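chain below, 274 aa
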Amino acid sequence: MNVITHPAISIVLPTRNGARFLRDDGSTDATPDIVGDYARRDHRIRTITNHENLRLPRSLNIGFASAVGRYFTWISDDNRFRPRALQTLEAVLDERPDVDVVYSDYSVIDDAGNTVAFRRVSPIEQIGQVNCVGASFLYRRRVHEALNGFDARKPLVEDYDFWLRAARRFRFEPLAVDLYEYRLHARSLSTEHDAAILSAHRLLLRESLPRFERLGRSWQARACVHLARSSLARGDRRAFLEDLWLGCRLAPTAVAAECAGRVYRGLLRRAATA
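prediction:
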């Protein structure tokens, strides 16, 4: 089999003005030259240039439209896979035909590449409370095709929307191995738009709740508690009350148990640091 025309994995790397770190999404710095140099040195790399900034979800869809691998993933221009990360993720999908998406633990690094935190991923059942898939993942081509890719109407939360839709139809497998370095710095999209992301996250989850009836009203109610906490953290008292009230209408006992559990865990943490 020709490994050039039939690769196992296709990776899309969207970038715009990412010359410092290096899909080129309308860059105005030296990014096109850097990407072009990599492509000349490695025949596996293909470049696609947007002549205007199309934003992340559309750029991802354009990139994956040209992908030929049987497994898909994508990475930001300032993040890094650890050595043999892709082989480790690929092995799970090769050996487990029942699994459609595999995702792993990862580290958070700063601007200089120093590790500042560790993220352990949660079971997919937690998707209603947090984007538990995280930054390190590999999924079968059929997942992307079945979902028609990323929703261009969901910038800032396109990944969370993708996983929410996928969780209703496909099997996810978490992997307790650190395979990725996620960079958090001043120019990160996720730090530039924190408030907007939180607001979009709330609207997306509220919109998605009815689609998860099969998980039960208790699951939906716990997701509402998470939404309420997020609203309170933003200082949006009205949204906090709306989210909490919706949870109580769905399953008041589950809301009470979730709130009591969080208070108890908070007291334990406070006692441990006293």
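The radius of gyration is 20 Å. Residues 252-273 form the longest helix (22 residues).
thats it, cya
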